[in-house]
């Protein structure tokens, strides 16, 4: 976090003070969440808290400074909405951003989900914190609306849809993103990657955290990629990822509820309550089958003299969709995928130029594609000799 952003108290102090958050996450059942919230602020953990932290994150030690991103992969009814609402209330109400805001500027803390109805659930928890906490009631400026809490210190907590277009151009104290696993939709013009990439620049001024909470789903999308990359000791130290079943984070959850769910549908229950990414919803072939076809760390095979190559292009007609090109060749009855390129967020002409250059490197003069993007890619490739 930017050193100019002055915390009014530590997270540990706020969680212990009955006038602030002391009654929000009380007792042993909330101990896992308290450990995570304290660690996410770069505060030192006790020995017992550190053992909990290690079990949840796969890391031996807590971060030495506040993290840039906190990803909570937790089963349903695991208390993540309530815990993250406390974190959101802390970042909005107990950190002073006055040294960074321009005259008249209001710093935002958006609560985002696939729909505003879903985001409103976390919003209601945050509102409950400000309403219940004796210390924080006076921070609210006027009466909250159905989608906005205005604070006297110049911070607005707002419900927002998960849309990459509507979050740009604002200074953010933090961002709370709910059920991100379900933001990733095939062929969507508003995918999870685009939305999160649009949020991050808004956090650059304050250095506030991107806070992600979600139950897992399929092994794809930003939630799964971040888990693969940053969970455990080898992950980015500024990105903290925890993964835990519902009952680990909420020991008061009735075991009979979880048992019935596993009896009815083990695959669904393993994701909903066990925090396991699902394998039964993968398209065509499993992730392991794809990875088994990749020799070592090899990601692309260069052109081989005397080999005939074929190319397929999938070009969108506009919006935020990625545009892709695949080049491969046949060896007997075996099909070899030699190169794959994905490009987004640049001009159509630049994409065609890049694809044409790659095709020429492989000696490809004919590219196959569908008609979704109509005539512009055909004309663009033809003009470049492809």
List keywords for this structure.
single chain; 7-stranded mixed β-sheet; alpha/beta; 2 domains; 386 residues; 32% helix; 4-stranded mixed β-sheet; Rossmann fold; globular; 18% strand
Notes on the structure:
The protein has 386 residues and is an alpha/beta fold. The protein folds into 2 domains: 6-272, Rossmann fold, CATH 3.40.50; 295-383, 2-Layer Sandwich (Nucleotidyltransferase, domain 5), CATH 3.30.420.40. The protein has helices at 11-16, 31-40, 47-57, 80-93, 116-132, 192-199, 221-230, 246-249, 255-264, 266-272, 287-292, 348-361, 376-383; strands spanning 6-7, 69-74, 95-96, 107-113, 148-150, 155-161, 175-178, 210-214, 239-244, 310-314, 323-331, 334-343, 367-369. The strands form 3 sheets. It has a 7-stranded mixed beta sheet with strand order 5-6-4-7-8-2-9, sandwiched between helices. Strands 12-11-10-13 form a 4-stranded mixed beta sheet, with helices on one face. A hairpin with an 8-residue loop joins β10 (310-314) and β11 (323-331). It is globular, with a radius of gyration of 24 Å.
Summarize the structure.
Helix content is 32%, strand content 18%. The protein contains 13 helices and 13 strands.
Give a topology summary.
Blueprint (H helix, E strand, L loop, with lengths): L5 E2 L3 H6 L14 H10 L6 H11 L11 E6 L5 H14 L1 E2 L10 E7 L2 H17 L15 E3 L4 E7 L13 E4 L13 H8 L10 E5 L6 H10 L8 E6 L1 H4 L5 H10 L1 H7 L14 H6 L17 E5 L8 E9 L2 E10 L4 H14 L5 E3 L6 H8 L3
Parallel strand pairs: 2-8, 2-9, 4-6, 4-7, 7-8, 10-13
Antiparallel strand pairs: 1-3, 5-6, 10-11, 11-12
């Amino acid at each position: 976090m930017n050193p100019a952003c002055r915390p009014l108290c530590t997270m540990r102090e706020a969680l212990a003070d009955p006038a602030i958050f002391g009654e929000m996450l009380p007792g042993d059942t909330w101990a896992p969440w308290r450990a995570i919230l304290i660690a996410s602020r770069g505060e030192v953990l006790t020995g017992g808290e550190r053992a909990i932290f290690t079990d949840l994150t796969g890391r031996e030690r807590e971060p030495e400074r506040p993290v840039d991103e906190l990803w909570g992969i937790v089963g349903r009814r695991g208390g993540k909405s309530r815990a993250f609402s406390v974190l959101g209330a802390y970042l909005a109400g107990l950190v002073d951003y006055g040294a960074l805001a321009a005259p008249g500027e209001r710093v935002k803390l958006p609560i985002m989900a696939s729909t505003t109805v879903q985001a409103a659930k976390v919003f209601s928890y945050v509102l409950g914190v400000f309403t219940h906490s004796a210390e924080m009631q006076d921070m609210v400026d006027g009466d909250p609306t159905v989608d906005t809490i205005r604070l006297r210190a110049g911070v607005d907590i707002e419900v927002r849809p998960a849309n990459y277009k509507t979050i740009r151009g604002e200074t953010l104290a933090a961002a709370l993103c709910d059920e991100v696993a379900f933001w990733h939709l095939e062929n969507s013009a508003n995918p999870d990657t685009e939305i999160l990439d649009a949020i991050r620049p808004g956090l650059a001024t304050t250095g506030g955290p991107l806070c992600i909470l979600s139950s897992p789903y399929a092994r794809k999308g930003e939630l799964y990629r971040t888990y693969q990359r940053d969970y455990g000791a080898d992950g980015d130290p500024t990105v903290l990822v925890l993964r835990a079943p519902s009952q680990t984070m909420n020991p008061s959850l009735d075991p009979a509820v979880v048992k019935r769910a596993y009896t009815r549908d083990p695959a669904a229950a393993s994701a909903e309550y066990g925090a396991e990414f699902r394998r039964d919803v993968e398209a065509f072939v499993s992730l392991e089958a794809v990875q088994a076809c990749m020799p070592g760390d090899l990601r692309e095979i260069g052109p081989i003299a005397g080999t005939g190559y074929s190319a397929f292009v999938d070009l969108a007609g506009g919006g935020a969709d990625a545009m892709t090109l695949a080049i491969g060749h046949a060896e007997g009855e075996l099909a070899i995928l030699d190169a794959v390129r994905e490009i987004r967020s640049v001009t159509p002409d630049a994409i065609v130029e890049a694809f044409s250059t790659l095709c020429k490197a492989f000696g490809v003069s004919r590219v196959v594609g569908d008609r979704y993007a109509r005539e512009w890619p055909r004309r663009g490739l033809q003009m470049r000799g492809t």
